[in-house]
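ok so heres the complex, two chains, lmk if somethin looks off
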Amino acid sequence: NAGVTQTPKFRVLKTGQSMTLLCAQDMNHEYMYWYRQDPGMGLRLIHYSVGEGTTAKGEVPDGYNVSRLKKQNFLLGLESAAPSQTSVYFCASSLQMNTEAFFGQGTRLTVV
Amino acid sequence: GNSVTQMEGPVTLSEEAFLTINCTYTATGYPSLFWYVQYPGEGLQLLLKATKADDKGSNKGFEATYRKETTSFHLEKGSVQVSDSAVYFCALLNTGGFKTIFGAGTRLFVKA
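and the predicted structre for the whole thing:
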């Protein structure tokens, strides 16, 4: 059971570099989410998607873009990385409304 | 707006001690409530949930009861083990919603 898979697991970027984080789920879930986790702040929603081809902004969307071209994949892009984007990023998915979220293992990103 | 407040950590206990982690919420409507657990280096996993008032969620010896009158969902375990050391997140999902709202997390350390 793969569930939600994130790649890569770790990455170090220099300020100004770009990268894409990939999230894949094999549960046929409609909804997908990207969160960031910072010490003492819990999880904050960056962007989310309610279905293939749709995306929407969460609490902290600035500096990030997303795409959901296929139902099973949700990509998070950083066009010009900043040290403030050093964080652990989690992808999650849920089947439909009123159902719990399933999480990936996380990506630890350091921007130097 | 919707929010979740949980007790600050870290909480340090000896093995076999009783655990309580307090969680209160603010929500419009009748949310579902969750406890997620995050073991070191891993993503969040659903620990237990309750979908209506007076429901008790339970799993792996942990319990929490949905108390609408006190807007609380406190996590309890009668006898903790070293393997319970993790970060615990209280969360809510409002009726008709799909965006989970998380508390800041409470880190638990259990000493042998």
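quick notes: The first strand of chain B starts at residue 3 and ends at 6. thats all i got rn
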